[in-house]
Design a protein that fits this description.
By secondary structure, the chain is an all-alpha fold. The chain has helices at 2-18, 27-51, 53-61, 76-87, 91-105, 116-132, 140-153, 158-164, 177-184, 190-208, 218-231, 236-243, 257-270, 280-307, 333-349, 354-357, 359-369, 373-391, 396-399, 404-416, 424-436, 454-462, 475-487, 489-492, and strands spanning 443-445, 451-453. Strands 1-2 form a two-stranded antiparallel sheet. Strand 1 and strand 2 form a beta hairpin. Helix 20 (404-416) packs parallel to helix 22. The N and C termini lie far apart (121 Å).
Length: 503
């Protein structure tokens, strides 16, 4: 009996010893229980990690995100949509696929059923497609839809969005979506300009909210870097090679591998000209794409100077070169017209670049050889901006580098040809202050080899028989301009000079 009682007491003592609340238990027992609890917690955490591997891998690889040339996700529907976006040539099919992709992955009014990892994978491939295909598509609806999807992605995956579109890396020789969007915000298509502007707003917000001081201001550098690459392409074939180095036309135009192989077979049979690249329609598409990209670059640089102008005569740091100057003598009238407008913006917002450009030496040649009516007004407007900037320090002809005699002869050549049919009502008000500023003490020979004051030579060119004949629709405009210049005593008698602060 005593032995059984002692056994029960010993059992109770062991139970009290093993209980977690037993304060007088041995140190060995407490340590054993603590180790067991730690192992249990580790097992629970490992189970949670295993239950959500995509989230863990996305956190681990977020800092090393990069644009992907292929779709690496596992969703069959999204893979089908990307085939339509990247390979089909029909713009309606592309736009519908982009809209469906946005509604599935980046909806605006509701939560998406797609995982965060899948959203990042979609964005990384979409940015690659935009830079190599969608952003350069000749159909404005495709370009607009692509910018809409890229903008919608930021609200869903902001950190990945900012990392993939970071403006830090400007050393690469490829075109970037930052510069493409900035230029597209000046697109002639309203929908493209609207969606690209919304995308730019998100970029600017992300750039201003960045806590890293190294990224502050990098947006301007990345945009200008993109435009420099575009403007250094002297022909459409070089530009096409930058867009898609692997193929000059087939993959960019959305041709499948089968169509590519068929083109190669036809080329081998014909000997020459059998490939898709040599078709006239596709060559015209490439030329159109090149011209639009150059115009976007010229407009975009002017808009960049206007948004981020010089402050306190401090030179602009992001303008690393002046590759746009060569388009003043381009054979394409549209390039020259946009370059004239760009030079006018430089005179207003980035005058420190004028010395490196040497615009004063280029103006007479531009006047002498410009023969397109639509280009005369922006050319004269550029000259007025330049003289205004030079005249802010004194006499514009002495402060500037323009030779007044050579300039007057070049201007007379354009006026003697009736400004090649340009509407005098448009360019007339611009030419008045330019001629009024010409020095009276300098003379040049007219058509009769008689020396005349420079402003008077301009008046003689305006009233030529060809300009005031009844066949000209703007005859009265020429007469009005000549009257305004000749009647004014301040112009031809040597009265007070033009006050440039009012222009």
């Amino acid at each position: 009996m005593s032995s059984s009682k002692s056994g029960v007491d010993s059992f109770r003592g062991f139970a009290d010893f093993a209980h977690t609340d037993f304060e007088e238990g041995s140190t060995t027992a407490n340590a054993t229980l603590a180790v067991a609890r730690v192992n249990k917690d580790k097992a629970t955490k490992s189970t949670r990690k295993a239950s959500n591997p995509n989230q863990q891998s996305s956190k681990k690889n977020l800092a090393s995100l990069t644009k992907s040339p292929i779709y690496t996700g596992n969703d069959a529907l999204l893979a089908s949509l990307f085939r339509k976006i990247g390979q089909k040539r029909d713009p309606v099919t592309k736009v519908r696929a982009l809209e469906e992709l946005m509604n599935i992955v980046y909806p605006s009014n509701s939560e998406s059923g797609v995982t965060r990892h899948e959203k990042i994978v979609v964005l990384s491939h979409l940015i690659y497609l935009h830079e190599s295909k969608l952003g350069h598509d000749n159909h404005s609806s495709v370009r607009a839809a692509s910018y809409a999807v890229l903008t919608a992605a930021r609200t869903h995956i902001p950190k990945a969005w900012e990392l993939l579109l970071s403006p830090d890396d400007v050393s690469r020789k490829k075109l970037g979506v930052l510069g493409m969007a900035w230029g597209a915000s000046r697109d002639d298509a309203v929908e493209v300009a609207k969606n690209a502007s919304l995308f730019i707003e998100e970029l600017v917000i992300a750039d201003k909210s960045s806590k890293n001081s190294k990224t502050q201001g990098a947006l301007q550098v990345a945009i200008f870097h993109h435009f420099s690459i575009v403007l250094k392409c002297k022909c459409s074939s070089l530009f096409q090679e930058i867009i898609n180095p692997t193929s000059l036309s087939n993959s960019f135009l959305g041709l499948s591998q089968r169509e590519n192989d068929e083109g190669k077979k036809n080329k081998s049979k014909k000997g020459i000209g059998g490939g898709a690249f040599n078709s006239q329609s596709e060559q015209e598409e490439i030329e159109e794409r090149y011209e639009r990209s150059v115009l976007h670059a010229l407009k975009g640089i002017g808009w960049l100077f206007e948004c981020f102008p010089e402050k306190d005569t401090t030179p602009i740091k992001y303008a690393t070169d002046t590759c746009f100057v060569r388009f003043l003598t381009s054979s394409r009238g549209s390039f020259r017209r946009e370059t004239y407008s760009l030079m006018g913006q430089i005179c207003q917002f980035a005058p420190s670049l004028l010395d490196s450009i040497g615009l004063g030496d280029l103006i007479p040649n531009a006047l002498r050889f410009e023969n397109e009516p639509s280009n005369l007004f922006p050319l004269l407007e550029m000259i007025l901006y330049y003289l205004t900037k030079a005249g802010s320090k004194g006499d514009p002809w002495s402060e500037g580098s323009i030779d007044s005699v050579i300039f007057t002869k070049s201007l007379n050549k354009a006026l003697q040809h009736g400004c090649y049919g340009a509407n005098a009502l448009r360019w007339g008000p611009t030419i008045l202050p330019i001629v009024a500023s010409l020095p009276m003490d300098k003379e040049a020979n007219d058509n009769k080899k008689k020396s005349q004051p420079l402003p008077l030579l301009v008046v003689f060119s305006l009233v030529r028989e060809e300009n005031i004949s009844d066949g000209r629709s703007d005859k009265n405009a020429f007469l009005s301009l000549s009257s305004s210049l000749s009647v004014s005593d301040s112009t031809l008698v040597g009265g007070p000079k033009v006050s440039w602060r009012y222009y």
